[in-house]
Amino acid sequence: xxxxxxxxxxxxxxxxxxxxxxxxxxxxxxxxxxxxxxxxxxxxxxxxxxxxxxxxxxxxxxxxxxxxxxxxxxxxxxxxxxxxxxxxxxxxxxxxxxxxxxxxxxxxxxxxxxxxxxxxxxxxxxxxxxxxxxxxxxxxxxxxxxxxxxxxxxxxxxxxxxxxxxxxxxxxxxxxxxxxxxxxxxxxxxxxxxxxxxxxxxxxxxxxxxxxxxxxxxxxxxxxxxxxxxxxxxxxxxx
Length: 239
Ligand SMILES: [Cu+2]
Prior knowledge:
Elements: H1 2-15, H2 21-52, E1 56-60, E2 66-67, E3 73-78, E4 94-98, H3 107-110, E5 129-131, E6 134-138, E7 147-156, E8 162-171, H4 192-238
Parallel strand pairs: 2-8
Antiparallel strand pairs: 1-3, 3-6, 4-7, 5-6, 7-8
Helix pairs in contact: 1-2, 2-4
This protein binds copper (II) ion.
Copper (II) ion binds near residues 53 and 161.
């Protein structure tokens, strides 16, 4: 960095009587712009390896949160798009939901060899659905009790790495017998009371992923800018 400045300064001294001043001013401005550009890009370059690996951003129900009655679905939202299962139920993406009567549910991640879940009921209903950075697992809420639920999940990140973790949430009430499972997703938008929740969800997701996209795009733009400035400096030095 100081080399660039030193060269710029010496050129200015040597050529100050033979070369028009605006030219060396331009060079110094370019060198300064390169330094400023590098100052912006350096933190991004350091942050890049950390951002490369996805992470869990949020869950619904909220991790360690509580809901009224057992939810019709559980969702997990990650920082980046996940890898779609090659075929439904191929095991790369899996979500299991156990109630608190399943004593070993918490051991599945911590110590899988000792976890005995043979007598546990898995409330997951069908295969999980992967949509971009989100996994949605339908829940069979029939006769689901109140209490703490443990969600065990496995996903395949966009970079091909697998991850498996767990979280818990609490249902304050059991599923009431008279309540039938909720309407199908295609009916939901017509019902104003039911459309509120899904639209809120998608809004949250857009808000979470936007800064990441902006950071990546601005990083690329800055890199191109710096490359262009360096090219200009090299070119002007040769001439
Ligand atoms: Cu990874």
